[in-house]
């Protein structure tokens, strides 16, 4: 029976991981194609980076729609419908006649992919709580974080024998497979009696309640700001590695993927050790690691250091995301069982909206400057620390006797 339960748990992890990994695949798989897309459309690098921004906005806004919808209509139907839309948008990307049509299709693609991210997290909260929630989410992150490793390598493999268009044909095929998986393998986890009213005002009021929750907002902002910094890293490294350091698309994919290993390390540390080290302490450790590693990375950039000096601090910076995202998700979702979809939507919205802001800023100094990326990842690390200590950290109530002594 125990072995059967473990098998069922891993089957659920793989299924939900496939749905939530659609976001990283959609973001990362076409990154090695940035220079080729720029040349093919005869456009500027900033417009190609804007296609990433459009996708991130779609991923963010889609979650704020799909999360509450899943609280009303259940988890299964919204996932299936959005996956059908995703595969259609992927093929539109492949046949786009110009950069502006491509950017619009990327927005739709991101919007559709959002359901897999937000609803898979809501399903986890439907089924688990407490330390079990943290451990299951770390398992989900293990599967989910494999895709940032696989996606650039797969993307560079596809463009090695075809054009960037092949990347989006592959993404459309992935959409078809996921529609079949969702139809056959995803069971409903939110019974009708636990669903929210379909009244729009009540849904909006629920989100307002979440945003007025000081601790929830602190965790959400800390996670969102940190991941906003990661999107600056994601948007900047294709040009930094390939244009500044002369890396081939294949070497870029390996470097990008090796940093992705650190995501897995960070998230698994939290999942394996959460009985010994609290999620709150892990969150502080991750935030401090992010600030230190991003400061070192910016220093290397300003000193025009070699590639081998830049990769290690970026590795540590990405590892800090694995730590903070796992810990902050568990802390934020723990008290939100009554509206897990809406809470998951807010947690998902902030990173993508902030990422949509940071991504185009990376290219503000041109293709041959890494300084904007370094400044952004340091700034986001410091702002995330401020959000946590300003909002989420519990206030210590001093002993009355100590207060009396201080007053005298």
TrEMBL record:
Location in or out of the cell: Cell membrane
One Pfam assignment: MFS_1
Coiled coil feature spans: none
Keywords: Cell membrane, Membrane, Transmembrane, Transmembrane helix, Transport
InterPro entries, alphabetized: Efflux_drug-R_Bcr/CmlA, MFS, MFS_dom, MFS_trans_sf
Listed GO CC annotations: plasma membrane
GO MF annotations, alphabetized: xenobiotic transmembrane transporter activity
Sequence intervals crossing the membrane: 12-31, 46-66, 78-97, 103-124, 136-155, 161-186, 216-236, 251-270, 282-304, 310-333, 345-365, 371-391
Domain named Major facilitator superfamily (MFS) profile: residues: 12-396
Superkingdom field: Bacteria
BP GO terms, sorted: xenobiotic detoxification by transmembrane export across the plasma membrane
Membrane topology reported for the UniProt record: Multi-pass membrane protein
Family: Belongs to the major facilitator superfamily. Bcr/CmlA family.
NCBIfam families: efflux_Bcr_CflA
Protein name stated in the entry: Bcr/CflA family efflux transporter
Natural source organism: Paenibacillus lycopersici
